[in-house]
Amino acid sequence: MSAVAPKPKSNSAVALEELRHLIFSGELPAGSDHLESELAARLGMSRTPVREAALQLEGQGLLKVRARKGVRILPISIEDMIEIYDVLTELESMAAASAAKKGYDPKQLQTLERTITDMEAALSAADRDAWAAADDAFHAELVQLGGNSRVVAIVGQMVDQVRRAKAVTLYMRPLPTQSNKDHRSVLEAISDGDPQAAHDIHYAHRTAAKNVLITLLRQNRLHNL
Amino acid sequence: MSAVAPKPKSNSAVALEELRHLIFSGELPAGSDHLESELAARLGMSRTPVREAALQLEGQGLLKVRARKGVRILPISIEDMIEIYDVLTELESMAAASAAKKGYDPKQLQTLERTITDMEAALSAADRDAWAAADDAFHAELVQLGGNSRVVAIVGQMVDQVRRAKAVTLYMRPLPTQSNKDHRSVLEAISDGDPQAAHDIHYAHRTAAKNVLITLLRQNRLHNL
DNA sequence: GTCTTCGATGATGTATACATTGTTGATGGT
DNA sequence: ACCATCAACAATGTATACATCATCGAAGAC
Lengths: 225, 225
Fold this sequence. Notes:
The structure is a homodimer of 225-residue chains.
Chain A: H1 11-24, E1 33-34, H2 36-43, H3 47-59, E2 63-66, E3 70-73, H4 78-102, H5 110-124, H6 128-146, H7 149-169, H8 177-192, H9 195-219
Antiparallel strand pairs in A: 1-3, 2-3
Helix pairs in contact in A: 1-3, 2-3, 4-6, 4-7, 4-8, 4-9, 5-6, 5-8, 6-7, 8-9
Chain A binds a DNA duplex (30 and 30 nucleotides) through α3.
């Protein structure tokens, strides 16, 4: 038999994926309104699963369902970015400390190490998109190693909310050479089992990243994304 | 005219409120399954708004919608409690530090002060329920003063998830006299504009509270609530 | 000419009918 | 007696029809 599983995905799940893709790709721009009927027609299904998906996405902070006005794709303001980065800084640093406490052996840190080498390779090739993907993977794996599933979920949601803004600034900023050094230092601290160092280094890393991003947005008058 | 606003609440919103109440009151016990049709009949509406409410509650981590098996009220394990308290410790301490940085004047800290005097009064009267309510109010106001709306939302969700467990242990633990001293110290640190102190004191406070709770649950073999 | 009111419009909110699919039980074979 | 297969069932997932209500525009009065 063919190897692929038939994958019986519900329409509601499809709507969720598709809407997320449409939002992240910018096909549904920030601040725009869309009727449930339009979206349903676009996805080739009825309003019901689309509406359910919209409700869930509202819970994830990506859009807002407004009575008789359709769903509005929520723009991210600079103030939102600051809030989100503050949460990310706090929870990721906590995860870094937790990971260091667990005493992982090198084999278990292989995945994290790999994301760093990927970033370094992307940096050498000046491939910003590859770098961003590896950077995402690093942060995702880091919180995973922290071992707190709530933190993983919250961080995932926050990252989703700033995804568009990060994409915009990706080509505006200088190549992040310092970032890579920071990442490797965090890995070393985790590998050495030094929670305080892992926490502090990552905290400083995220704070610096936040400041770069905020400055960039302010300079370019990008108050809503 | 009569003073009360007509309050045109949608059935979906009503379902959300009612289901939350049924869960927190224990009328829908942890681990129990319930058909959408049953719940709809119970709330006097059709399945549609009930289903929408269930989807949102699933996003809030209070229940799980299982295909063809109804919704299951999610029990909270000790491991869940640890995860949640770790997040609460981190984010509330962050909020305490932020609040201290803002330089609030006494008038703006009136509400927080009030929750502390309420706790002290409840403690003198040995009124555990009143104490718990005031304690909730203190933590809610604290994160509010922190000024990060994401933190407010996340902490609110986490508090909801541990609400049942806290209710169970409320009458098992000794009267929390130390807690009140901690609260007042946090208020003082915020009032003094000392972020580090506010952070550290609250962090220690939450950590201690976590340990008390976990120990209590373990001793009483309450692994699921 | 402008303001107000009323009605038509259209989109969400809700109910209901239907399709889909896992589960459970019975039936028959080994 | 036990296991496997199949069929009826039941509950969710989905579509659709309908109710409700805000918004917008037009018409009429001042």
